[in-house]
Amino acid sequence: MVWLARLKETLSVEQRDPELMRAQLQAFSRQIPLLYFILLVNTAAVAATHLDSAPAWLSLYLPALLGMLCLLRCVRWWRVRHRSLTAEKAVREMRHLTWLAALFGIAFSAWSLLLFPYGSAYQQSQVAFYMATTLVGSVFCLIHLRVPALLLLCIVILSFSVFLVFTRYPVFIAMAVDMTLVGVALAVVIQLYWRTFADAIHAQRELQASQHNTQRLSDDNYRLASIDSLTGLPNRRSFFASLRAMAEQTRATGGGFNVGLIDLDGFKQVNDIYGHASGDLVLQEVGTRLLSLGEGGLLFARLGGDEFGVLVCHKMSNDALVELGQRICDALSQPYQVADNVAELSGTIGWAAFPEAASTVTQVFERADAALYVGKENRRGKPVIFSTEHETRMRRLSLVTQELRHADLETELFLEFQPIYDLPTHRPIGLEALGRWHNARLGMVRPEEFIRIAERTELILGITDVLLRQALAEVAYWPADLYLSFNLSAVDISTSARARRLIDIVAASGVSPHRVTFEITETALTRDFEQAASALTMLKQAGCRVSLDDFGTGYSSLSYVHRLPFDAIKIDRSFVTDVDSNSASKKIIKSVIDLCRNLGLECVIEGLETPLQAEVVKALGAHAVQGYLFSLPMRASAVGTFLWAALAHRRETETQT
Ligand code: C2E
Ligand code: MG
Ligand code: MG
């Protein structure tokens, strides 16, 4: 009984593996026409030779019926030959075929054995030959279906061999033995073939699984390589790939598209004030907001830092582009909830159209960047579309950059000095050094222009060195109670080594560090707050003073005052311009003066131009002032005369009192 159970188990292996079963049926399907061809031709041949010797029902009708069944099976095969089987259907089909093999085996064997007694010895040999060859042919056609093939083999061999043995003719008995041995050999071949086939299918399946796995991993890698992990948006690489693809398509089929570059205003402050984790949250929120604009034909990407890109996959009128840009800017300017704080940011966007504004991918990107640059300077939080005016600016930018790179800084740079006065006594207390650049090709270049360019290219380091040395050389000739106020850039305080270099220059000049005040604008602090703080502390420790320039023009000004070791604050001249008419400006100046008094800081009011402004700020408690009202910036050579005149004026007023 154990062997029976084992046989059952062996025979039911396929049933537990529908994939294998499907492969078996598929392979068998290709052999079906051949199987029925063998059956039909062999049966017809035997039937034909028995037409005269056997009754009609046996030599004609029965084989005709069996032939019909074969043809019907062929027709069915033709109709379903392309179907794909589900696992369940495959099991059903296999069972069905097993039954069919058994029935066909019984039917054909029965017919042959019934026919056997009607013929001569030759005809009987023909029937035996028919059974043997048809069986071998059929079994080979069924070789992929192990169970039906074995079943057919058993039925035919058993019935035929037993029948032949009972004839008691030695020739037929020998034939029966022979057939049985061939049957056993065939059974072994079927079993071996089935195992090889099953192994091949398993190996193929494993190969497919590993290919699938490799494909999935490569898809994952590709996805990771083209997605920004923080925001989930496509990254810079993916953005440029799409940009290139769109440019190609536009060149091939016409049409056009638009490139937008978005830069966040005030993001660095969020990082500095609330920390990098909050900065990350803001960037994620920006990604979500951009995606939620959810319009078809828009492709957003994070290009790096706080810079994002957008591709508008179709042409758009300028008005529509401005309107879309404004919607993007509006979405970005909504308050951001970071931990327990609310951060205010805005986004500026620069647009450039392809192929109208540019004919290459690099150019269209550069032009969107040029529009963004202009927007960041003049239209923060707004969309800007690239125009020829921006082109002119860009040309000027690259011209000035070129000239600055090749300039002989020692001879082309010089300084002008603007006095800082004590308003109540009307005495100069210090002079601010203002950098000037005269270039043979460009003429005089405004400091705002060349300093900004120098900052972008790090040429500022050389400029600061040259100007600081020049300024300190002048201070040596000034009365000891006058200080020098010297402007620094963000880059000058971006590393401790650079701060140390400034200290060394001051030390080498022989001027007492107490007479040197370094001015830093708020925007300079926003680059890397921690580094700036440590550089300022180094300058302070070396004995120099530090002052916050253009106060009120940046973000979160008060937080800087509290957190950095300033000695003075310079209120930006934009507050002074309307101080005599605008009560808000007046209040701001008043509160900053009070704040400075409370914190023990000096407060310098910049940009005084009219006596009325001077009167108003004096009434508000101002002491240190600076502006065209008192003196324009002057060449170093004029400072001596100016100081003599100021001294003479002081002596005169002292003798009068
Ligand atoms: P700042 O440090 O705020 O310098 C004051 C600017 O205001 C100077 O412009 C000065 O000429 C101008 N100014 C002074 N009084 C008045 C006034 O009553 N009315 C008006 N309308 N303007 C007045 P300047 O020299 O063109 O410098 C512009 C900016 O360039 C400076 O602003 C400073 O941020 C930067 N800068 C100048 N020289 C240097 C330098 O050597 N190094 C660095 N890093 N920056 C410099
Ligand atoms: Mg200044
Ligand atoms: Mg200033």
From TrEMBL:
It comes from the Bacteria. The lineage of its organism: Bacteria, Pseudomonadati, Pseudomonadota, Betaproteobacteria, Burkholderiales. The keyword Membrane applies. Residues 255-388 form the GGDEF domain. Pfam families: EAL (PF00563), GGDEF (PF00990). Residues 397-647 form the EAL domain. This is EAL domain-containing protein. The keyword Transmembrane helix applies. Gene3D superfamilies: 3.30.70.270, EAL domain. SMART domains: EAL (SM00052), GGDEF (SM00267). The chain crosses the membrane at residues 32-51, 57-75, 96-115, 150-166, 172-194. Keywords: Membrane, Transmembrane, Transmembrane helix.
